[in-house]
Write a structure and sequence with these properties.
The protein is mainly alpha-helical and about 60 residues long. The chain has one helix at about 30-50.
Length: about 60
């Protein structure tokens, strides 16, 4: 008989807030572009990775 395992993995994607002011500038264009990349490129890559392993995911957006 095969055992069944359940795990929970949490992923926190706060694309903008983590970068704002991170390199000494308030709302610099570099900080904003990092956040844009995370939201527009990073999240789809993450979803593709989860799908490649057939991992179900649920997203909640604040």
């Amino acid at each position: 008989m095969q055992d069944t395992y359940y795990i929970s993995v949490t992923i926190d994607v706060d694309a903008m807030a983590g970068w704002l002011g991170s390199y000494g500038g308030e709302d610099s264009l570099c900080d904003l572009s990092r956040g844009e990349f995370a939201g527009k490129i990073g999240v789809p890559r993450l979803l593709n990775l989860l799908e490649s392993f057939n991992i179900k995911a649920r997203f909640s957006l604040p």
